Fold:
Amino acid sequence: MSWINAGESVYMTSRKKGAKAAADLEKALVESFPIELVLPEAANILAAARIKAAAKLSYADAFALELARSRRARIVTGDPEIRDYGGAEVVWIGPSSRPQA
Structure:
């Protein structure tokens, strides 16, 4: 996970659930989640900028896509902008697109 996306997750959690929940997430990201946090380098930043320029998605989403592309990794997301962009294998955890019975 890009540090850009980690930061986005922390601030969104703070807005939606408060500072304590954000602090708990921050601690888990650094200490216990089984993910590697990656600090973008100049080439990644410029590649993310090119993705952002070509697509209707957030700059943070462009970082997620660039990291997946550069690492040949999957993106686990519930964000439809990332799912609909293409260019990376997506593991969808958002709402089902199938109608409920």
Remarks:
- The chain has a mean pLDDT of 91.
